[in-house]
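Below is a filled-in request sheet from our internal design queue. Each sheet records the structural input a requester submitted and the sequence that came back. We keep these sheets so that new team members can see what a complete request looks like end to end.

REQUESTER: design group, bay 2
PRIORITY: normal
MODE: inverse folding
CHAIN LENGTH: 342
BACKBONE (tokenized):
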């Protein structure tokens, strides 16, 4: 994987002249930019040898930034954020066309001739792999996707961060924290910091600490809502839905996640009935042990047939919303009313 090649570049100190970082995980993009900066520029000269550009590229300004010699340093760093040159531009009428101008021939030529003393990093949210500029970086540098990490990797990372703070957390409690947080590593780190501050001099982190301190994500709230549906507690389910609506969570997103939750409950139920233990089923599904524990409790309240009906009903509601036959809030309430009643 390209991310492993990047790690080796950093470890060996053999930093290339050209990189493209893209993906949804902002924490990883920032982290690897910082690692490269620390590797090629001494702390006392970083202000002189680090330049960040944001927005559309002016090839003249980019070349000036890259061609200027480093100051009291062998190398310098130029970071270009949100350049948009790696996305197809829309033609009038909405059709997509090839990127032109600064992302055309001039840029393609320049990407082949980055000075050896410059490290140029493009920092993007997403890219179109059909764009010629992407091919040029593939040939002359390294492209690294910084995607959201899998739950198991996040749990390992959370344990490692707590350890660096002098705190101990077991795998199950760490998985509870990950499942209670939003998906991004920055958000998880914020929750880790809150817990570390909350427990003070105490070294052991408990599940109760997570419950008291961490702000529940929409994923965590949907878990609770599905718990209420499984327990046939319609009142609590409606309250949780109202709470999410009050927090301005988009109703289509809530409906999607409820449907996803029903699918995961069914999948876990099928896997365990096939003879897999909970750990094996969790690994196969790519979820944390904590999430698997909650799902299996929910699974005991549903038959396979009920779960299949819930998924089918969710799909029907989605179609009805998109065709304007029903409002999203009413659809969510109808779904809860049907499956949370005795």
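RETURNED SEQUENCE:
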């Amino acid at each position: 994987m390209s991310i492993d090649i990047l790690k080796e570049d950093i470890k060996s100190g053999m930093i290339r002249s050209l990189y493209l970082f893209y993906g949804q995980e902002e924490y990883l993009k920032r982290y690897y930019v910082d690692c490269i900066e620390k590797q090629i520029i001494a702390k006392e000269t970083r202000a002189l040898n680090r330049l960040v550009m944001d927005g559309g590229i002016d090839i003249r300004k980019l070349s000036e930034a890259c061609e200027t010699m480093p100051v009291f340093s062998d190398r310098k760093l130029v970071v270009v954020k949100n350049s948009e040159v790696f996305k197809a531009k829309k033609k009038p009428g909405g059709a997509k066309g090839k990127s032109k101008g600064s992302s055309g021939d001039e840029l393609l030529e320049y990407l082949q001739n980055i000075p050896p003393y410059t490290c140029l990093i493009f920092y993007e949210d997403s890219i179109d792999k059909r764009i010629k500029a992407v091919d040029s970086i593939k040939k002359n540098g390294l492209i690294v996707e910084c995607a959201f990490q899998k739950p198991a990797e996040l749990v390992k990372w959370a344990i490692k961060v707590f350890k660096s703070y002098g705190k101990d957390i077991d795998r199950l409690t760490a998985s509870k924290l990950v499942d209670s947080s939003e998906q991004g590593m920055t958000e998880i780190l914020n929750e880790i910091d809150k817990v570390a501050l909350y427990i003070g001099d105490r070294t052991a982190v408990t599940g109760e600490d997570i419950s008291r301190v961490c702000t529940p994500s929409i994923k965590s709230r949907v878990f609770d809502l599905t718990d209420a549906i499984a327990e046939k507690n319609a009142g609590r389910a409606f309250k949780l839905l109202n709470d999410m609506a009050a927090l301005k969570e988009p109703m289509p997103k809530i409906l999607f996640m409820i449907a996803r939750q029903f699918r995961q409950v069914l999948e876990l139920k099928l896997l365990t009935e096939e003879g897999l233990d909970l750990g094996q089923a969790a690994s196969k599904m790519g979820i944390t042990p904590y999430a698997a524990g909650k799902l299996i409790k929910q699974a005991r309240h549903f038959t396979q047939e009920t779960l299949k009906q819930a998924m089918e009903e969710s799909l029907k509601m989605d179609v009805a919303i998109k065709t304007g036959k029903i409002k999203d809030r009413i659809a969510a309430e109808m779904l809860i009313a049907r499956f949370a009643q005795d």
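SHEET NOTES:
- The first helix runs from residue 2 to 12.
- Residues 32 and 167 are 25 Å apart (CA to CA).
FILED BY: M.R.
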